[in-house]
Design brief:
The chain is of the alpha/beta class. Helices cover 28% and strands 23% of the residues. It has three domains: 7-171 and 507-584, Medium-chain alcohol dehydrogenases, catalytic domain (Quinone Oxidoreductase, Chain A, domain 1), CATH 3.90.180.10; 196-338, Rossmann fold, CATH 3.40.50; 350-442, 3-Layer(aba) Sandwich (Rossmann fold), CATH 3.40.50. It is built from 18 helices and 26 strands.
């Protein structure tokens, strides 16, 4: 562990790289395969090559996604079957870095002391080589940054950070960027240009008076596949398609076609970009349309009457593949392509955060309360009373100051009838926004019943692809409710988050619940897996032996650090400076 004459010297990045470091390697499935006997290992530090940087890891946030890697090992989709026993990885993708050595070919672009966070979703030639997955991550004291990160498919995956920005708040910009991304509407407001469309007619659609007027303002697809489309509409589609040079194919009836064969024949196995189900006469057609969607595909229900039953739709793909469900009336089918919403939650509306007192839930709660376009009512529900109490202690004052009614509910301490009554008292017309932070399909189904007219459910929690939930197709078609989701973030989201933190618009440090040194990472991962902390855990790799510590317990361990905490034991850059000075500054 390097020692410094002052905290300013530490921040400068001016230091000799040590010969070795501590690192946590993952050798297989389960926490027992993280490190050796629950301990980090010594590892050599290589000097940077001509096109590389050597960076110090100043802070590393622990994420539930890290525990998914530990649970799945080499079977994790981002590890592509990697043999971890013989080729282990170093996890951790929430990192605050300081450059301490620059390769000779990079001297004009980078200098010692430059600070960055990493956009973890690194792509090289279309392959995801995510930081902390395929590429060595943040649970080491020093990391080599090479061409994959400096010159990947999207350019450089490092986002600059100002010198004065705290290390924890910089590291937490990555999970915060995922939260910011969840509310940024990047979905198409038209058919996909040169995409593939599947039009499915169902009983009742023959009475629709649909015209293609207005379609000229949409993008032009490559092909339109029609199944059981009413004759008048089919003729109109063919007329319009002929003028635009679009391929039109009429298939056999719905009961005779194979979804898999259609997808293979007309999309090369990728799936349809837009699936439009006309009429409410077949729930099976809706489910087939969902199964046929391409990544970023849109399922549109055009109906004027209720469906006979609910439908089972893949909510895992809503999260991971950004598939999207929307509806519209036959008189205005293009309404299904309206923008989801101009701001992240409906201003002045009512929002319900399901699982809203957990680590990520509290980040969504904070963003809702601190936003300049905030809702009037925010409900955070959770099955843990301690988490709910912590959420109220942390954010109740902010809610009051900003004129937001904040309500916390634990459904396990009341009957189902009492819980339903309470929700309907709070939102008689339903909730404008429901954010799902619990990856439970039955809970997604039950919560969706409380969506208001034009309400939106954001499937933020990642349920596996192929996981279906029973949803009310009538509400999608006739009430205009929508289901959206997102996974991860993009470079622009990380830049926006860093900007919000540096301008004071966002306070990432409020998410911190516990801290620890490098040797506490194993305990930290266990705590994240078991959900025993109500907020984020941050590891400081340059500190060796600080045990995993709740912020409210700092008074008895490091009183000089505890004295720098904010209200309700909030982590601050001042407390962080005191912590690092205590362990890393001589004298």
């Amino acid at each position: 562990m390097a020692m410094f004459g002052s905290f300013e010297e530490y921040r400068s990045g001016q230091q000799e790289p040590p010969a070795e470091q501590s690192a946590w390697y993952l050798y297989g499935v389960g926490l027992e395969n993280l490190g050796k006997d629950k301990a980090a290992e010594a590892a050599e530090i290589a000097a940077p090559g001509p096109g590389q940087l050597l960076a110090r890891v100043d802070a590393a946030g622990l994420c539930f996604s890290d525990t998914k890697i530990i649970k799945l090992g080499g079977d994790h989709p981002r590890l592509y079957g990697r043999d971890l026993a013989n080729d282990p990885i170093i996890p951790g993708h929430e990192a605050s870095l300081t450059v301490i050595a620059v390769g000779e070919d990079l001297g004009d672009e980078y200098k010692v002391g430059d600070r960055f966070v990493v956009q973890a979703d690194v792509y090289v030639k279309g392959v995801n080589l995510a930081f902390g997955y395929m590429l060595p991550g943040a649970l080491e004291q020093y990391v080599l940054i090479g061409e994959e990160i400096l010159a990947g498919d999207d350019g450089c995956y490092l986002v600059p950070v100002e010198k004065e920005t705290g290390y924890a708040e910089a590291a937490l910009a990555e999970p915060w960027a995922c939260v910011v991304r969840a509310y940024r509407d990047v979905r198409r407001s038209s058919l996909k240009n040169r995409g593939n469309v599947w039009l499915i007619g169902t009983p009742g659609a023959e009475d629709f008076d649909i015209r293609t007027t207005g379609l000229e303002y949409l993008n032009i697809p490559r092909s339109v596949i029609m199944t059981d489309v009413p004759q008048a509409l089919a003729a109109e589609v063919k007329r319009a398609a002929g003028q635009a040079g679009v391929q039109v194919v009429a298939t056999a009836g719905f009961d005779e076609v194979s979804v898999e064969e259609l997808v293979e024949e007309y999309t090369g196995g990728k799936g349809f970009d837009d699936v439009v189900v006309l009429g409410s006469g077949s729930a099976e057609a809706v489910e087939a349309g969902d199964r046929s969607l391409n990544r970023n595909g849109r399922l549109v229900l055009i109906a004027d009457k209720p469906f006979a039953r609910s439908v089972n739709l893949d909510v895992g793909r809503v999260h991971y593949d950004a598939t999207y469900f929307a509806g519209a009336a036959p008189s205005d089918p293009l309404a299904a392509y309206r923008k989801a919403r101009p701001v992240h939650l409906k201003p002045g509306g009512k929002a319900w955060l399901v699982g809203g007192a957990g680590p990520m839930g509290q980040m969504h709660l904070q963003l809702a309360l601190e936003s300049s376009n905030r809702p009037a009512v925010v409900v955070a529900s959770d099955i843990d009373d301690d988490r709910l109490a912590t959420a109220m202690a942390r954010f109740g004052g902010t809610a009051t100051e900003n004129g937001v009614e904040m309500v916390t509910l634990n459904p396990t301490v009341m009957s189902a009838e009492e819980f339903d009554k309470k929700l309907r008292e709070i939102a008689p017309e339903g909730f404008d926004d429901i954010v799902m932070l619990a990856a439970v399909p039955k809970l997604i189904s039950a919560s969706a019943a409380y969506l208001a007219q034009d309400g939106m459910m954001n499937v933020f929690a990642g349920v596996a692809r192929g996981t279906t939930a029973e949803l009310n197709a009538t509400d999608i078609a006739l009430k205009g409710v929508r289901f959206v989701g997102s996974s991860g973030s993009a470079i622009e989201d990380l830049r926006q988050t860093i900007h919000m933190a540096q301008t004071g618009e966002l306070s990432p440090n409020r998410a911190v619940a516990g801290i620890g040194g490098m040797n506490a990472a194993w305990d930290g991962m266990e705590a994240v897996r078991d959900g025993t902390f109500s907020g984020k855990i941050v590891i400081y790799p340059q500190i060796a032996d600080l045990p995993l510590t709740r912020l409210e317990d700092l008074e008895g361990i490091l009183p000089e650090v505890a004295a720098k905490l904010g209200p309700a034991a909030q982590w601050t850059t001042e407390a962080e400076a005191a912590l690092l000075s205590h362990f890393l500054v001589e004298g």
